[in-house]
Amino acid sequence: MGKVDFQDRICRPCCMFFVEGEKEEMACLGARVAERLLAAGRIDTAHVNAAEKNRSVWEASRQDLGETLCKKCEFRAEDCDFQSPQPADDLEPCGGYIVLAHLLENRIIEQADIEDVL
Ligand code: SF4
Ligand code: SF4
User: Fold this and answer.
1) Is 80 in the pocket of ligand 2 (CB under 6 A)?
2) Quick count: other Cβ atoms within 10 Å of Cβ 4?
3) d(Cα 111, Cα 87) in Å, to the nearest integer?
4) What CA–CA distance (Å, rounded) separates 62 from 95?
5) Sign of the torsion angle spanned by Cα atoms 82, 96, 94, 76
6) What is the CA(6)–ligand 1 centre distance, in A?
7) Looking at the CA of 66, which ligand is closest?
8) Which pLDDT does position 3 carry in this prediction?
């Protein structure tokens, strides 16, 4: 998947951190994992498009995705406070996390699917 596709499918619709026209040197791990699941055919675009912003869905996966995903994400240290002990009330996770939490909640994937593409 090209960078434009990936930004169109995951970053622009789902991520509060996406800035139109800004050149990102590197994608967060959440977006990269979602992209790999798409590239592997494990999920399709319709699954991604169905991901809505839902705080209770994010919270349900906070611990599991914190361990499998966020702990290994290069953005966590400097850019992303979602997994910090006291995140701001209005803080959202990245678009990749939002997609993955939706997929887990709806049993479209399991944690093992994420681990397979890390
Ligand atoms: S933080 Fe991740 S999902 Fe958000 S714009 Fe950057 S690469 Fe995309
Ligand atoms: S929520 Fe933050 S730490 Fe977790 S994958 Fe997304 S950018 Fe990385």
Assistant:
1) yes
2) 8
3) 24
4) 14
5) positive
6) 10
7) 2
8) 56
- Alpha carbon 96 to its chain centroid, in Å, reads 1
Which pLDDT does position 33 carry in this prediction?
96
- Any atom of ligand 2 within 6 Å of the Cβ of 30: yes
Kindly report the protein residue whose alpha carbon is nearest to atom 6 of ligand 2: 94
pLDDT (0 to 100) of residue 97? 97
pLDDT on residue 89:
85
**Is the Cβ atom of 93 under 6 angstroms away from ligand 2?**
yes
Question: What pLDDT score does 78 carry?
Answer: 83
Q: DSSP class of residue 72?
A: G
- Mean pLDDT, each 10-residue run in order, the chain (118 residues): 72 91 84 95 94 94 96 91 89 96 97 96
- Ligand 1 and 80: CB distance under 6 A: no
Whose alpha carbon is nearest atom 5 of ligand 1? Answer: 18
